[in-house]
Amino acid sequence: MAGKAYEPAGGAADLIKARDQLLEGGQPRHPRLDAAALRQALVDLYELWLTGKGAELGITRDSGLAVVAVGGLGRREMLPYSDLDLVLLHDDVAPKRVAEVADRLWYPLWDAHIKLDHSVRTVAQAVRVASEDMVAALGMLEARHIVGDEELSNLLIGGVRREWRTGIRSRFDELVAQAQARWQRSGAIAHRAEPDLKNGRGGLRDIQLLDALAIAQLTDAMPGLGPEVPGGGLNQARQRLLDVRTELHRVAGRARDQVRAQDADEIGAALRLGDRFDLARTLSDCARTVGYSVDVGLRTAANALPRRGLARLRRMPVRRPLDEGVVEHAGEVVLARDARPQRDPGLVLRVAAASAQTGLPMSATTLNRLAEDAPELREPWPREALNDLLVLLGAGRGVIDAVEALDRTGLWGRLLPEWGAVRDLPPRDATHTWTVDRHLMETVAYASTLSTRVARPDLLLLGALLHDIGKGRAGDHSEVGAELATHIGRRLGLWPSDVRTLAAIVRHHLLLPDTATRRDLADPDTVRYVVDALDGDPQLLELLHTLAEADSLATGPGVWGDWKASLLGDLVRRCRLVLAGAPLPMPEEIDPELVAKAKAGGVHVELRPGAGKYLYTVTVVAPDAPGLLSEAAGVLALHSLRVLSATLGSEGDSAINTFVVAPRFGDPPDPGLLRQELIRAIAGDLPLPALLAKREREALGAKPSPYAQARPVVLWTETAIAGQVVLELRAEDRIGLLSRLAAAIAGCGADVLWARVVTIGAAVVDVFCLDLGADHGPRRRAALEQALLEVVPQPAPKLPQPEPGR
């Protein structure tokens, strides 16, 4: 046994010493064990100690005493700092003797600070507890004899399992409810930044749930998946999750189930997976494999439950036709009796389309049969196969579960081999909620609800499916994706003109949102830039506009909103005018009433309803001076008005600045109050920095300002005019950020010509066109960049790791 090299001399302290030696490794005599070998060595070590201790205490074959392990030791999955779960069984033994043995067994472990979950019971008591307590039952289903009277242990193991099988019908609903409550608490491992490997959906508890259903003889231990599926199937997923959790214990130096972001790189390196993104991808693959198996297992188990009472008299469910060769049976989509998968390559898509449209899951048996027997579709695809694919993609949110099932059983990869590069690929942007492949399917689901907006819904759905297909490969994902889309379009049998359009959708899927949020829409060159990029194709413009909305909705909370919608709508409207033959739009003239107020001098503030339900337009007319933008934005922030964009103009010696704002809560303040506060700010009687800091502390409940999750980024773009540059800042939001940024810009002597401010959830993408004058070299830009970075949230500094032994 691997643990024999560290055989404890007798006491539990020696057990701890031996465990620590196993964990340290890295020495010539004791090399560092990999995760699987470490678990086995720990199992051997604990068993060795318990066997020796049992012999010392007289726990022998005919003693009427036995030690049974449950939990990690029972499953032979002992992790470095897992609890030791033991049951001391006794039969016809004097209570004083049992108490003495228990004390001499438990106290050394407690004294050595080993986490111990223990109980002392007869077989009858243990079986009764298992019949009444679900958690205890699930634990004792994994029971394993360690030392003593093996017949006693077998009575317990057999009795608990018989009780479990005979009582599963009455306990099944509780079992499912318990699992769902756990998923609700811990979330899904595949889509959590810091997943819970034990309790999260797709984690180790779910694998134990499948084992429990298999013991109840309601399903097998690997429902719906064989070893040939992507990722290697359920057994491979189990081993990978255990390996990650083992290294998590080793890195943390204590029991832990949740992978923290700061430990992910070290864990990935220890397992030779790569960095934290590679680790996240591995965990996503494992969790989604487990999650699919649990769905199949629970469904199979529910159908296999023994019938009682009147339910036994009900007729077997009939088969309801859904499509050619596809029927519904017992709440699942299955193959018709006369279906011939070997001769019907399009059957896979018809089955999936029927599932997506009806919301019924595909039978695991059907998917396995299709995986074994269905031939490859010839290229180009037959027209009916393409139609079935479009039916699948247009089925709304049903497409997500249908494609997930196809992907986990290896069928989706046959239809779309390029999918492998994006499968389980984690996002690199904090605004993205999903893995790349799930994001693509979310986009398809949203696009299907918007398909009536376009003349070619088929190209919209295909564009949604493929718009990020270039990720996970070297190069710009839009350009790489366009090439892949060309090959895929030809394979699907699209017309050459449609192939070109599909490639253009993928190539330019970011064109409209990037332009609308980062450039001046009133500039004629902006519109000309978009029209030229699209070769003047109005149909492509329409498709990209709708795809941009679906893509934003599928990215995450707060990415799509009234303001972004109005920006895109304004840009598309201007482009359509040009495409219709109208002259390039020029910057809108300033309202004559505002011009008159500017000539009259003084400070004026107007507030009017905006383009959306919760949007308002605030116009500020005031004497032009450095710092005016900062002061105006600061006053708006003090009154809980979130600035979404700013348009700057001038007339004579007065500035005319327009802000689109959204109240954080309630109704906006009276414009007269805003005017009074602005006058005070301009005069220097309103300490904006201090007031904004106070407002931020109040909003955070007197807690310190939170650290950013992502590092801020500053990008520079040249313009055609000497001395003028476009600065783009991507950072996390904070109260009064625009005021602070404008003050920093003014403090560096730069003039803001126009600004485009976009808030996406908790992040901002702020674009400023700056006039730096003659001194616009690298040193000036570096100073300006540093000034901006000083006022935006920064990630928390990484704490130094303690030295070994401290």
From TrEMBL:
Gene3D superfamilies xref list: Beta Polymerase, domain 2, cca-adding enzyme, domain 2
EC number: 2.7.7.59, 3.1.4.-
Name used for this protein in its record: Bifunctional uridylyltransferase/uridylyl-removing enzyme
Stated family: Belongs to the GlnD family.
Domains: entry comment: Has four distinct domains: an N-terminal nucleotidyltransferase (NT) domain responsible for UTase activity, a central HD domain that encodes UR activity, and two C-terminal ACT domains that seem to have a role in glutamine sensing.
Family annotation (Pfam families): GlnD_UR_UTase, HD
UniProt activity-regulation remark: Uridylyltransferase (UTase) activity is inhibited by glutamine, while glutamine activates uridylyl-removing (UR) activity.
Designated gene of the protein: glnD
Reaction(s) the record says it catalyses: [protein-PII]-uridylyl-L-tyrosine + H2O = [protein-PII]-L-tyrosine + UMP + H(+); [protein-PII]-L-tyrosine + UTP = [protein-PII]-uridylyl-L-tyrosine + diphosphate
Domain ACT stretches: 617-693, 726-804
Functional note: Modifies, by uridylylation and deuridylylation, the PII regulatory proteins (GlnB and homologs), in response to the nitrogen status of the cell that GlnD senses through the glutamine level. Under low glutamine levels, catalyzes the conversion of the PII proteins and UTP to PII-UMP and PPi, while under higher glutamine levels, GlnD hydrolyzes PII-UMP to PII and UMP (deuridylylation). Thus, controls uridylylation state and activity of the PII proteins, and plays an important role in the regulation of nitrogen metabolism.
Residue intervals of the HD domain: 436-537
Cofactor: Mg(2+)
Coiled-coil ranges (or none): none
Recorded superkingdom: Bacteria
InterPro entries assigned to the protein according to its UniProt record, in alphabetical order: ACT-like_dom_sf, ACT_dom, HD/PDEase_dom, HD_domain, NT_sf, PII_UdlTrfase/GS_AdlTrfase, UTase/UR
Protein source organism: Nocardia panacis
Location of the region described as Uridylyltransferase in the Swiss-Prot/TrEMBL record: 1-321
BP term (GO), one: regulation of nitrogen utilization
Keywords noted in UniProt: Hydrolase, Magnesium, Multifunctional enzyme, Nucleotidyltransferase, Repeat, Transferase
One function term, GO molecular function aspect: [protein-PII] uridylyltransferase activity
Keyword Magnesium annotated: yes
